[in-house]
Amino acid sequence: MRKIGFICILLLLKNTAWAQVPDLPATVKEELESVTEKNQDIETEDDSWLQSLQQFIKDPINLNTAGAEELERLQLLSPLQIQNIIAYRKTIGNFIDIYELQSVPTLDIATIQKIRPFVTVSNNDDIGSVTKRFSGGIHSVLMRAKQTLERSKGYLLNDSTATNFYPGSPQNIFVRYSYSYKNLLQYGFLGEKDAGEQFFKGAQRQGFDFYSAHLFARNIGLVKALALGDFVVNMGQGLTQWQSLGFKKGADVINIKRQSPILMPYNSAGEIYFHRGIGITLEKNNWQATAFASYRKLDANFNADTITNDDFVSSLETSGYHRTKNEVDDKGVLQQTAIGGNISFDPDRFHLGINTIQYHFNLPLEKDNYPYNLYALSGNSFGNNSIDYSYTFKNMHLYGEAAVTNKMDKAVVNGLLISLDPNVDMSFLYRNISPQYQSLYTNAFTENSYPNNEKGFYSGISIHPNNGWRLDAYVDHYSFPWLKYQVNAPSYGSDYYVELTYSPSKLLAIYSRYKSETKSGNDNSGSYTLAPVVANPLQDWRTEISYKIAPSLMMRNRIEMLWYDKGKPDEETGFLSFIDIIIKPLMKKYSGSMRLQYFETDSYNSRVYAYEDDVLYSYSIPVFYGKGMRYYFNLKYAINKRLALWFRWAQTIYKDQTSIGTGLDEISGNKRTELKLQGIYQF
Question: What is the pTM of this model?
Answer without folding.
Answer: 0.92
